């Protein structure tokens, strides 16, 4: 806000780039910026707004100047909204890759995919499918399956390979996997054989040592009963028999040297013998323990090496699928840019961005991955270390809170923020200034005070000293005059029939709404989608209006399910299940549903044609998109579900452009993605939100309910950790993968340190998730934990109990504790009024199409040929935004149509004539924002679709392609397009009709 409003610097918003973590946070940030600008532009009293007061003081301006400046900036931003750059870091990298696709040797028409699990699933299936064809791979897979059978596990190795394959998409493993990229399957096989041999050697050494101990026992005429509990000789016997499924946890094993090997009641002679032999037994025991840990290390390496051996093969299949389908996983973005810029002092891909942006803001920096940060440094350095024409230098503002770092599983590295803060890293010449933001602008007093006190107390249970200091010294936030607030902690006892968390949540919702609050004021925060679904199912059954991850899935909407059944029936009219689903939807309101269904199951086609005008035969030539639009109109589906229908149409349009208009293509796409396609969370709906804590980061809610607050601080889940090994001992491998477990503390100092560091980070992750959940609330925070507290400090429940205990508040017979008071709403606020944009089918009715085709049929052969070529060229131009997209577009059209050599040459020639025409060249530059065939709904709900709109810095040009002779109606149509764009706040620079005949003739209207 300061940069935008500073009268001395006059920084235009087009030179600012703000980056945050999620799309929801992007929306909230934009809303806050615009909302504050509007608020300041209407402000009369400086004291009425503390932020305005601070800005006036910081910028040395009066309230009147602030008001006028805010008005002007708001107007400029709204009129040039496309230049208002608040974005996610993934979108920024995507735009860079898209712009420089050719230079990066990537297909320019690539599609971004988030469905890495589906991609990996197919890649693993393809790899397994090569069994019996690839001899080396076949032998390896067979051995792996047989080993699993020997270990009494399922022979099916798909899950093992799938789980290992996930490493390919995780940034934290990228560096290590790159080092192993050149290792062949044979290299892995040789190491595998060596590990097996070494494991066998260690086992023989253990057995030999156990043999020696038993020989000493026998040669001294000692019985097993002479030893305390017979423990030592029994343990030796177990190992001698080759049973290595043992541990060293028992008390007698922990202090073997210190305690005698016999009971107090043993005869003195036995005591004397065992005392004499104790040192010899201790040496054997230590030797066995040492060999056992060496064996455990090798076994752990071997267990991970076997599936990892196929990783390169899986990676090849992943790349093959990506090339076939022209897709790029979002997880590849950072590595592509990192690889491109690593050897360039001034990366070419940043040249244009570096000229455009001078001031950078990165929000939620604690979740920025190491690779993302390294990729951004060269771009930001250009702004910080260079000056513009007015000799003004750029700036960088990093905003973050290490306590809110909860995306480590996605590569987020909170430690890099700590290193910057502590001065351990200095990537720029410019020295940073560090400001602690102690003011809490979100929450009311009681919530701030509770969180300050709780986290200061909980900090002492953190293992790592740096993390402990972070929570000790950085939790004392100050209130910004929001008095009141309410916190309630409830410890719930288990119930056999009902989930106590669901029951208590329902009770709280009732209490809150009884006090006048809206459902939309409430957000329920949970750890994962499974818990979200569980809560949503319960609350829905109690008729609580909800917005949850499940409720937003397209597949859960009735109208969408009906349309999918309709498509399945069109594809296969004999599919009785889809016939049934269609009729159930259409007759849902009928009391005698069965009587309505039976007569129509065998005559569905006739019923749909006669009752709804939905003629299956007339749809044979239509695209999936057109069929869906027509079905929505014919069956009157528009209404409350319009958001779902728009999303379904968008998906159909996208599939049509990539895979063709056939129903089969869309149904296959739907099968793969139905579990992930969803709406964004709607605003203005009076419904309780259910959200994961990770999705809620950066957001705020009036009332927060936090159920299931009983998680372990260190969950014990096995993680994959890389350890360094001596290459000469491991056939040239200098690193191997281990599954984390407590045994790692015995694998040597370096491995033990890696394990300890992972434990500390896991604990910090748990604290940070708790911190994020407890700092989202504005007015009230309800924490629902478990009454079964197993440990004082190993679970969230334990932390809460320990905190209350220290404050002298804990009572064994009390399960609920409150701080502050929940105030009622004197007047319920109404959800925002929303104006629904009607769904307007653009598909041409069959009769209209038939008439149009009949006119074409009556045309002369020469005219027919001209019309066909005109349509072909028009289709091509609708897919071309920039000059560099021409080859890919022609290639795509060739793959979708049966084009002759003459057609291809015609396309290449005419497109070249258009984009390189001296009067038109400027409209195909790659620094423009381009919209081809973009639907625009006018004030009277009329639909307009200009062929091409290009925008640069809020100035637009509108272009339409025509054939034949110039006509006034063409000009009138173009003027109408221009007028509606002007009404949207754009300045119209050019209105161009491009006549495509034997020659290209542009007419500027």
Can you walk through the features of this model?
The protein folds into 5 domains: 2-108 and 337-436, Rossmann fold (3-Layer(aba) Sandwich), CATH 3.40.50; 117-325; 445-544 and 698-821, P-loop containing nucleotide triphosphate hydrolases (Rossmann fold); 554-673; 859-1004, Lambda Exonuclease, Chain A, CATH 3.90.320. The chain has 37 helices and 24 strands. Residues 445-698 form the UvrD-like helicase C-terminal domain. It comes from Flagellimonas lutaonensis. This is DNA 3'-5' helicase.
* Backbone shape: globular
**So what's the oligomer here?**
single chain
Q: How many structural domains are formed by the residues?
A: 5
CATH class of the largest domain: Alpha Beta
Give average pLDDT, whole number: 86
EC number: 5.6.2.4
Catalytic activity: ATP + H2O = ADP + phosphate + H(+); Couples ATP hydrolysis with the unwinding of duplex DNA by translocating in the 3'-5' direction
Pfam family, one: UvrD_C
GO molecular function, one term: ATP hydrolysis activity
Short summary of the structure?
By secondary structure, the chain is α/β, with parallel strands linked by helices. 50% of the residues lie in helices and 11% in strands.
């Amino acid at each position: 806000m300061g940069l935008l409003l500073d009268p001395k610097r006059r920084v235009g918003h087009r030179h600012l780039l703000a980056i945050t973590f999620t799309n929801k946070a992007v929306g909230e940030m934009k809303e806050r910026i615009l909302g504050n600008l509007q608020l300041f532009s209407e402000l009369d009293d400086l004291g009425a707004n503390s932020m305005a007061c601070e800005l006036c003081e910081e910028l040395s301006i009066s309230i009147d100047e602030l008001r006028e400046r805010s008005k002007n900036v708001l107007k400029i931003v709204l009129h040039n909204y496309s230049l208002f750059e608040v974005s996610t870091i993934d979108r920024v990298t995507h735009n860079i890759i898209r712009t420089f696709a050719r230079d990066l040797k990537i297909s320019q028409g690539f599609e971004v995919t988030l469905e890495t699990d589906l991609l990996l699933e197919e890649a693993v299936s393809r790899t397994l499918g090569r069994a019996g064809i690839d001899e080396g791979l076949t032998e390896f897979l067979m051995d792996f399956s047989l080993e699993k059978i020997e270990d009494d596990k399922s022979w099916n190795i798909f899950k093992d390979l799938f789980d290992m394959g996930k490493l390919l998409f995780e940034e934290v493993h990228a560096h290590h996997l790159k080092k192993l990229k050149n290792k062949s399957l044979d290299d892995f096989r040789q190491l595998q054989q060596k590990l097996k041999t070494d494991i066998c050697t260690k086992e023989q050494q253990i057995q030999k040592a156990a043999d020696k101990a038993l020989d000493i026992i026998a040669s001294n005429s000692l019985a097993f009963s002479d030893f305390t509990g017979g423990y030592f000789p029994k343990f030796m016997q177990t190992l001698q028999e080759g049973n290595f499924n043992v541990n060293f946890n028992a008390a007698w094993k922990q202090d073997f040297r210190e305690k005698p090997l016999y009971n107090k009641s043993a005869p003195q002679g036995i005591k004397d013998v065992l005392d004499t032999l104790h040192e010899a037994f201790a040496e054997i025991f230590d030797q066995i323990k040492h060999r056992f840990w060496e064996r455990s290390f090798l076994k752990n390496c071997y267990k991970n090496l076997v599936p990892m051996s196929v990783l390169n093969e899986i990676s090849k299949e992943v790349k093959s699928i990506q090339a076939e389908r022209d897709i790029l996983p979002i997880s590849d973005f950072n590595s592509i840019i990192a690889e491109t810029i690593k050897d360039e002092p001034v990366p070419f891909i940043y040249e244009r961005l570096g000229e455009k942006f001078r001031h950078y803001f990165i929000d939620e920096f604690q979740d920025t991955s190491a690779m993302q940060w390294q990729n951004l440094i060269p771009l930001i350095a250009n702004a910080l270390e260079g000056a513009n024409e007015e000799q003004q230098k750029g700036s960088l503002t990093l905003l973050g809170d290490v306590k809110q770092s909860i995306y480590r599983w996605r590569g987020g590295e909170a430690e890099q923020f700590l290193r910057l803060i502590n001065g351990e890293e200095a990537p720029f010449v410019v020295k940073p200034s560090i400001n602690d933001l102690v003011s809490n602008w979100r929450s009311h007093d009681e919530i701030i005070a509770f969180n300050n006190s709780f986290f200061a107390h909980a900090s002492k249970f953190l293992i790592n000293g740096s993390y402990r200091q972070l929570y000790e010294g950085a939790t004392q936030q100050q209130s910004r005059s929001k008095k009141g607030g309410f916190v309630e902690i409830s410890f719930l006892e288990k119930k056999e029939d009902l989930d106590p968390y669901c029951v208590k949540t329902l009770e709280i919702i009732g209490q809150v709404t009884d006090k006048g609050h809206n459902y939309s004021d409430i957000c329920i925060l949970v750890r994962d989608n499974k818990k979200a679904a569980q809560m949503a199912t319960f609350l829905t059954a109690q008729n609580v209006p909800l917005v949850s991850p499940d409720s937003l899935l397209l597949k859960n909407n009735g109208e969408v399910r009906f349309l999918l059944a309709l498509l399945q029936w069109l594809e296969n009219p004999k599919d009785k299940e889809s016939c049934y689903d269609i009729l159930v939807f259409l007759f849902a309101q009928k009391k005698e549903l069965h009587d309505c269904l039976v007569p129509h199951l065998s005559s569905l086609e006739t019923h749909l044609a006669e009752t709804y005008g939905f003629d299956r035969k007339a749809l044979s030539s239509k695209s999936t998109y057109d069929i869906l639009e027509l079905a929505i109109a014919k069956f009157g589906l528009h209404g409350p579900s319009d958001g779902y229908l728009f999303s379904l149409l968008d998906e159909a349009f996208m599939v049509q452009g990539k895979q063709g208009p056939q129903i089969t293509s869309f149904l296959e796409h739907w099968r793969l993605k139905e579990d992930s396609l969803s709406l964004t969370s709607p605003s203005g709906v009076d419904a309780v939100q259910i959200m994961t804590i990770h999705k809620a980061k950066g957001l705020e809610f009036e009332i927060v309910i936090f159920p299931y607050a009983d998680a372990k601080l260190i969950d014990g889940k096995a993680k994959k950790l890389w350890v360094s090994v001596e290459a000469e001992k491991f056939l040239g491998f200098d690193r191997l993968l281990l599954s984390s477990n407590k045994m790692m503390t015995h694998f040597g100092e370096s491995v033990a340190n890696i394990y300890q560091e992972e434990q500390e980070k896991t604990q910090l992750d748990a604290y940070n998730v708790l911190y994020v959940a407890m700092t989202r609330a504005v007015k009230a925070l309800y924490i629902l934990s478990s009454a079964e507290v197993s440990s004082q400090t190993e679970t969230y429940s334990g932390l809460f109990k320990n905190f209350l205990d220290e404050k002298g508040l804990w009572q064994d017979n009390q399960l609920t504790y409150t701080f502050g008071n929940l105030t009622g709403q004197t007047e319920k606020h109404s959800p925002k009024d929303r104006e629904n944009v009607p769904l307007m089918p653009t598909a041409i009715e069959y009769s209209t199409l038939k008439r149009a085709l009949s006119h074409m049929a009556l045309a002369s052969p020469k005219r027919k040929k001209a019309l066909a070529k005109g349509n072909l060229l028009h289709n091509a131009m609708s897919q071309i935004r920039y000059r560099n997209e021409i080859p890919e577009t022609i290639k795509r059209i060739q793959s979708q149509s049966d084009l002759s050599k003459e057609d291809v040459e015609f396309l290449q020639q005419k497109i070249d004539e258009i984009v390189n025409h001296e009067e038109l060249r400027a409209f195909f530059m790659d620094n423009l924002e381009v919209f081809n065939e973009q639907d625009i709904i006018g004030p009277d709900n009329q639909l307009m679709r200009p062929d091409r709109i290009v925008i640069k810095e809020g100035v637009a040009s509108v272009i339409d392609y025509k054939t034949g002779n110039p006509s006034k109606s063409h000009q009138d149509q173009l003027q109408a397009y221009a007028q509606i764009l002007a009404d949207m706040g754009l300045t119209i620079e050019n209105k161009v009709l491009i006549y495509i005949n034997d020659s290209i003739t542009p007419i500027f209207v």
